[in-house]
Amino acid sequence: MAKQQQEVAVEVKPTALMSVADMEGDEGGGFEDARKDSYAIPFLQILQKGSPAIDVDHPKHKEIPGAKQGGIINTVTEEVIDGEKGILVLPCHFTQTYVEWADRDAGGGYVASYSVTDGQRLLATCKRDEKNRDMLPNGNYLVDTRNHYVLVIKEDGTASPALISFSSTQTKKSKKWMSAMQDAKVKRAVGTTFTPPMWSNCYRLKTVSESNTKGTWRGWDITRESPCPGMSLYDQAKQFRDAVRAGAVKAPEPREPGSDDEMPM
Q1: How far apart are CA 61 and CA 50, in angstroms?
Q2: Fewest CB within 10 A of the end CB: N or C in the chain?
Q3: pLDDT value at position 139?
Q4: How far is it, in rounded angstroms, from Cα 221 to Cα 212?
């Protein structure tokens, strides 16, 4: 008769915890073959009353904790921030593009993005329709889009990159924000002044109620809050700016103005 196998208890002794020095020696490990399209830079968007995250009767409804009108949603993490409290951001880079969209009656959707020079050339060929859109001869329409690349500063002092796009009724908010950053001056020791980089100051973005003859919606309210809190964030913002300019950051596909989570045109 075979002997009954006995279970042997194996004592697992704890090993030393990894140290910062260990991790520093393997800095960036695992990401060597990742390309710019391997990462998702989130949009920060305002939840409107017609947003699928809010409207349970919407065909694309998806339940997201904390979602309510006027909230600010991170499109990658789906985290929702109270719009009245707002978010603290460090602006890093600005681009302006003209985006071509297919008309919804023709299926809708993103077509192409153009530089300011090419976009303004195309704009000269447009005619305004009854919805106040700039219609191209091919039946698509063109939208002036202002893109602000930012670092979102969390309560624990860490920061993560994001993109905020302004179009339609919010374009004037982008212009005002850019003017405020351009007008900020710093005095040199010799008494002259210069314009500091846009990431030298933090801004609070909240949401407010707005309206026109076509409806009501929530829009952005932007105020300067404080200087950049330290060199670590200052350097992180500068590196993000450099990555965007070098094409090492893949921006998400634009969101169509007038879609379910946008304001009326």
Answers
A1: 10
A2: N
A3: 94
A4: 17
Q: Does residue 23 sit within a domain?
A: no
- CB 206, CB 86: distance < 8 Å: yes
Which residues 6+ apart lie within 8 Å of 63 measured at CB?
53
Find the CATH number of the domain harbouring 209. Answer: 2.40.50
Say what the pTM is. 0.81
Is 234 in contact with 241 (CB distance < 8 Å)? no
Complete edge-to-edge strand list for the sheet that includes strand 80-81: 44-46, 72-74, 80-81
Residue 148 DSSP code: E
Contacts of 103 (CB under 8 A, 6+ apart): 139, 140, 141
Cross-strand pairs, 96: 146
For the chain, what is the domain count? 1
- Integer Cα distance of 263 and 218 in angstroms: 7
Q: At 170, give phi and psi (nearest 5°).
A: -90, -5
Residue 205 belongs to what domain range?
85-245
Structure confidence at residue 138 (pLDDT): 95
With respect to residue 26, please indicate whether it lies within any of the assigned structural domains. no
Question: Is residue 25 domain-resident?
Answer: no
Q: Per the domain annotation, does 51 fall within a domain?
A: no
- Tokens encoding 110: 């993103």
How far apart CA 76 and CA 102 sit, in angstroms, is: 25
pLDDT of 25? 73
What is the pLDDT, as a whole number, of residue 177? Answer: 97
CA distance 72 to 121: 34
Residues of the chain with pLDDT under 70: 1-22, 24, 27-40, 256-265
